[in-house]
């Protein structure tokens, strides 16, 4: 095989792969209800009183958890995550080139940011606790890994919104932690520690921009685009690449610096432990400064039952040998009894156990939520517009999409099945608001055909789910016989159904003296049973005359 033949085979395979990718993308885009998704995005991206309130509560929880160095409280602030909605809306608006939505999202984010900063500054200013806790310091040195976490979280968040799996936003909120970095910015401003404020603000902006652009990329994949013209694709690609490049450079350098510090820290700790090996010693504190061409300065406090002479030069020599740079070592050896050392180690283990105990309820709640979500998703066999599972409140809400094509009977049975599976929970399955099924009667009589009693139960269930109070019941009859007898029969049929609805608590108005234009032609086409029916419409008052829909 010569070079030209090999090149031809490679190009053919590349073209085949390209066609496969395009086909997969087209299939993925066609499986999504674009108007419904955009409706959810717009609802979550606007500035509303709920958004402002949740921002205040989330920031308050976050800053209190940071000041107390409480991981459990900080996770609580992550779960609220009010900023996710505007960020997702911003990502979609970048793809659809919707300047109006883009402006609304930016305004919501800007006001949310200012509100969060104001709340955190006020709380820190009046707080007696203003020390730099480890949880605060952990959010002042973002690196390239934080950017990657934000990218994957943005993709997960965008997929959750597009596929109608809103509960996944909670997991995304935990992964990206938007509010705690913003609260740390407020802490830095309130305490005039601008290095903390700048570092945490870089982390917040990294999460914000990476999530927004990741959502924009996913929205483009699912063809939420205003235009697929080369110019539109080019400027969006350039914007994404420039933003990621601008974020990657400082975060990459920070990651390299963190890696260097980690290597130095591990090496220094290993050298100190080697000098006190076999003496049941414990490093109480370790502070390392310098580096990058400057001599390392190591200050350590070691608890030891026996004083070790010459430990400092030995550690300095080991560091120079392994790292290739000089080090100034100062070791404060605190001689303690073995009993005291054992007690200190036991106390540290007890503190670790307490931290785990604080996190256990949250972990248990998260596992319970995930189990409930998996069970509901396994039971739901149709595309959904809403699927909310709240184990804490013991509440489940399911709402199919407009084109799900699932009937009232199947939805009611699903609700009953979920009630059996989740005993004691508030289960709500809401059918799509639309025409109710017609009820059919025996020829010339006001008795239901077989199965119509269950259809009445389905209709009552749907009306309750829609919270409808009043309906209009319209009776029909075939044209066989006299007009007067047909009208009387149609009214009796309507009244029969209306009584069932009234017994269920609805206000049912009867309308029966109806003659449909072209009824005889329809009867010849569909049969006389076509008009042996009763239709139920939402509301009361004058209704436009409509020809009953064919049942097939």
Q: Kindly state the percentage of residues in helix.
A: 55-70%
Which structural class is indicated by helix and strand composition? alpha/beta
State mean pLDDT (0 to 100 scale): 78
- By DSSP, the count of extended strands is 10
Q: Order of helices and strands, N to C?
A: HHHHHHHHHHHHEEHEHEEHEEHEHEHE
Sketch the major β-sheet. Answer: 4 strands, mixed
Q: Tally the structural domains.
A: 4
Helix run count: 18
Query: Termini distance?
Result: 62 Å
In order across it, which strands form the biggest sheet? Answer: 7-10-8-9
Q: Can you tell me the overall shape?
A: elongated
Cα-atom Rg, whole angstroms? Answer: 34 Å
In words, what does this structure look like?
The protein has 552 residues and is of the alpha/beta class. The chain folds into four domains: 22-226; 228-336, Alpha-Beta Plaits (2-Layer Sandwich), CATH 3.30.70; 360-429, 2-Layer Sandwich (GMP Synthetase, Chain A, domain 3); 439-538, 60s Ribosomal Protein L30, Chain: A (2-Layer Sandwich). Helices cover 62% and strands 12% of the residues. The chain contains 18 helices and ten strands. The protein has helices spanning 3-30, 34-45, 49-68, 71-80, 84-96, 99-126, 134-137, 144-163, 168-176, 179-190, 194-221, 230-275, 311-323, 338-379, 408-421, 452-466, 483-503, 519-526; strands at 282-291, 294-304, 327-335, 384-390, 395-400, 426-429, 439-440, 470-475, 507-511, 533-538. The strands form three sheets. A four-stranded mixed beta sheet has the order 7-10-8-9. A three-stranded mixed beta sheet has the order 1-2-3. The chain has a three-stranded mixed beta sheet with strand order 4-5-6, covered by helices on one side. Helix 12 (230-275) runs antiparallel to helix 13. The two termini are 62 Å apart.
């Amino acid at each position: 095989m010569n070079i030209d033949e090999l090149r031809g085979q490679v190009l053919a395979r590349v073209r085949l792969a390209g066609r496969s990718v395009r086909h997969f993308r087209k299939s993925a885009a066609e499986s999504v209800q674009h108007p419904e998704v955009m409706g959810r995005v717009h609802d979550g991206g606007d500035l509303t009183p709920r958004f402002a309130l949740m921002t205040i509560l989330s920031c308050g929880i976050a800053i209190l958890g940071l000041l107390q160095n409480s991981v459990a409280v900080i996770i609580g602030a992550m779960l609220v995550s009010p900023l996710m909605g505007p960020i997702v809306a911003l990502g979609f608006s970048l793809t659809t080139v919707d300047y109006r939505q883009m402006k609304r999202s930016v305004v919501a984010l800007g006001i949310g940011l200012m509100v969060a900063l104001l709340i955190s500054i006020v709380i820190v200013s009046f707080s007696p606790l203003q020390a730099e806790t480890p949880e605060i310091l952990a959010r002042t040195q973002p690196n390239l890994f934080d950017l990657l976490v934000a990218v994957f979280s943005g993709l997960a968040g965008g997929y959750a919104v597009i596929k109608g799996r809103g509960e996944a936003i909670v997991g995304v909120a935990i992964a990206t932690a938007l509010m705690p970095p913003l609260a740390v910015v407020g802490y830095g401003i309130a305490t005039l520690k601008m290095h903390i404020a700048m570092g945490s603000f870089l982390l917040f902006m990294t999460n914000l921009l990476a999530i927004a652009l990741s959502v924009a990329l996913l929205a483009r994949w699912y063809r939420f685009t205003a235009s697929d013209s080369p110019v539109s694709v080019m400027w969006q690609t350039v914007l994404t690449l420039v933003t990621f490049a601008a974020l990657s450079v400082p975060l990459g350098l920070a990651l390299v610096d963190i890696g260097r510090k980690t290597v130095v820290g591990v090496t220094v700790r290993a050298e100190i432990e080697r000098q006190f090996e076999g003496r049941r010693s414990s490093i109480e504190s370790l502070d390392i400064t310098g580096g990058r061409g400057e001599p390392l300065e190591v200050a350590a406090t070691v608890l030891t039952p026996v004083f070790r002479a010459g430990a400092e030069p030995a550690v300095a020599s080991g560091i120079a040998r392994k790292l290739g740079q000089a080090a100034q070592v100062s070791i404060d050896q605190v001689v303690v009894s073995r009993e005291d050392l054992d007690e200190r180690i036991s106390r540290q283990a007890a503190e670790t156990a307490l931290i785990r105990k604080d996190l256990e309820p949250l972990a248990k709640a998260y596992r319970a939520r995930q189990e409930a979500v998996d069970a509901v998703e396994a039971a739901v066999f149709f595309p959904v517009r809403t699927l909310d599972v709240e184990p804490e409140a013991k509440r489940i809400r399911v709402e199919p999409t407009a084109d799900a094509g699932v009937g009232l009977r199947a939805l009611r049975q699903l609700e009953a099945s979920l009630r059996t599976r989740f005993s004691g929970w508030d289960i709500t399955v809401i059918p799509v608001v639309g025409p109710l099924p017609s009820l059919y009667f025996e020829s010339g009589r006001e008795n239901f055909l077989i199965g119509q009693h269950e259809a009445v139960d389905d209709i009552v269930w749907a009306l309750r789910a829609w919270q409808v109070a009043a309906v209009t019941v319209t009776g029909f009859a075939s044209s066989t016989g006299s007009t007067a007898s047909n009208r009387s029969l149609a009214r009796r049929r309507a009244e029969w159904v209306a009584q069932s609805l009234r017994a269920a608590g609805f206000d049912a108005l009867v309308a029966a003296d109806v003659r449909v234009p072209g009824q005889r032609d329809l009867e010849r086409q569909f049969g006389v049973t076509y008009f042996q029916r009763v239709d139920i419409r939402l509301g009361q008052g004058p209704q436009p005359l409509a020809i009953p829909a064919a049942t097939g």
